[in-house]
Amino acid sequence: LTHEYQARDGAHHLHPFTDFKALADQGSRVITHGEGVYIHDSEGYRILDGMAGLWCMNLGYGRRELVEAATAQLEQLPYYNTFFKTTHPPAVRLAEKLCALAPPHIQHVFFTGSGSEANDTVLRMVRRYWALKGRPEKHWVIGRENGYHGSTLAGMSLGGMAPMHGQGGPCVPGIAHIRQPYWFGEGRLDEAHGMSPEAFGQACAAALDDKIRELGAENVAAFIAEPVQGAGGAIMPPESYWPAVKAVLAKYDILLVADEVICGFGRLGEWFGSQHYGLEPDLMPIAKGLSSGYLPIGGVLVGERVAETLIEEGGEFFHGFTYSGHPACAAVALRNLELLEAEGIVDRVRDDLGPYLAERWASLADHPIVGEARSLGLMGALELVADKATGQRFDKSLAAGNLCRDLCFTSGLVMRSVGDTMIIAPPLVIRREEIDELVELARHALDETARRLTR
Ligand code: PLP
Predict the structure, then answer these.
(1) Which of 23, 89, 264, 329 is deepest in the core (most CB within 10 A)?
(2) Could you say which of 342, 375, 392 is where a domain stops?
């Protein structure tokens, strides 16, 4: 069965973020079903999904309520659009629910089919906003190196993933990037290893100030960032970072876009990651955990400042997607939010599971090849190092992170590697004993990685 699927897959299927040729040669692992925090493959192995799919299966696998919400809606009205002054009950209810959960200054939402489309929408909205304010030249958007905002042309241009930018052709113009607040990767190496995390956070915010002055504040529309940078390596900024960034944006009257595609819906122990850091973003792109990944849906939560201008002064906004507010996706998202709320999952991440993971995860910091173990809510990272005393990395040619990831997978745990940073973001329904299992599987993979790299 496995070989047959692999051969047929290799013959026709071009996978996202995959070396097509290498995959066709090696074959993929075939995932057949899931239950709770576990997935199962075609060889009969059970694997703890330490990444919640792609950071999205917040409620975990096998939730009947979401299947029933989808089925009921597909029977009632499988599709209608929300273009040209039409609507339908699932879109109405979901918009209402999202605005009730969002911070009070956010009372509107624009629906999309994905996080990438949400960020394309963000770019169009911020430019439209300033144009309506009579300032069309204020159209530059500043993002961050190593940020991830999706794979469409606008999404990848807003993001700062060098390999994506480097694959041919120009990015969307009018987008600049500043350094990321990645203390382990950059800050501790600054100024002869002397910079404290807090000083580094300030320095990164100062880099934003510098970039704004370089471009001219009158030309800068918005700053976009993930509250915690996810795909870039689960990078929690130093505490000094966000307050300093907020002050810079206020000084120059620049909009803040907090990309909540990963951080939203409980991942960091709040409904939105922005709330953890005390941010009041003008725009918040959302997706993934919005439906716990059961059906594709995204959107942009729009704060009153921008919403009022678009509504009162904008006329028709020539923008939208066939599947904006898709009825079945909206019905599933609504049910998902109701379940997250009714089961107290967001609070449990903040008060119980997050602190529990933090304690267990920190125990991995003792491992000989771990330079740092950090976590916030149910997101964690390990930094692999060749020399614990100096924090020196493994030689790149060893691809230590990928080795560790593959060893994890074969021993029954999905972890992601970004370079030599190992990441976890399990479903939010994970239990304490499953966190114990996750940490033990990770430790086992670290042992095996160390054994292979140092023999
Ligand atoms: N924004 C962030 C922060 C993400 O992590 C992602 C996906 O990983 C996206 C946007 C893009 O979302 P999608 O893959 O649904 O287009």
Answers:
(1) 264
(2) 342
The average confidence (pLDDT) of the chain is: 96
Same structural domain for residues 12 and 120?
Answer: no
- The pLDDT of 102-127, averaged and rounded, is 98
Instruction: Compute the C-alpha angle 21/24/26, nearest 5°.
Output: 105
CA of 150 to the centre of ligand 1 (A): 5
The pLDDT confidence band at residue 192, using thresholds 50, 70 and 90, is: low
User: Are the C-beta atoms of residues 147 and 232 closer than 8 Å to each other?
Assistant: yes
Half-sphere exposure of 424 (CA within 13 A, CB side): 31
Ligand 1 center to residue 232 CA distance, Å?
12
Structure tokens at 285: 């792109």
Domain that holds residue 398: 2-62+344-454
Among 342, 372, 390, residue at a domain's last position: 342
418 CB less than 6 Å from ligand 1? no
Confidence band (pLDDT; 50, 70, 90) for 28? confident
Assess whether the C-beta atom of 51 lies below 6 angstroms from ligand 1: no
- Ligand 1 contact via 231 beta carbon (within 6 Å): yes
Q: Is 232 in the pocket of ligand 1 (CB under 6 A)?
A: no
In this structure, the number of other CB atoms found within 10 A of the CB of residue 385 comes to 21
**Residue 229: CATH number of its domain:** 3.40.640.10
Residue 143 sits in the same domain as residue 281: yes
401 lines ligand 1 (CB under 6 A): no
Closest CA to 334 of 291, 273, 271: 291
- Å from CA of 301 to ligand 1 middle: 15
> Would you say 44 and 20 are in contact if contact means Cβ atoms under 8 Å apart?
no
User: In total, how many domains does the chain have?
Assistant: 2
Q: Are residues 268 and 364 in the same domain?
A: no
Q: Are residues 366 and 255 in the same domain?
A: no
Mean pLDDT of 244-259: 98
185 and 301, same domain (yes or no): yes
ipTM for the whole predicted complex goes beyond 0.90: yes
Total-model pTM: 0.98
Whether the CB of 126 sits within 6 Å of ligand 1: no
Q: Identify the CA nearest to 426 among candidates 356, 329, 369.
A: 356
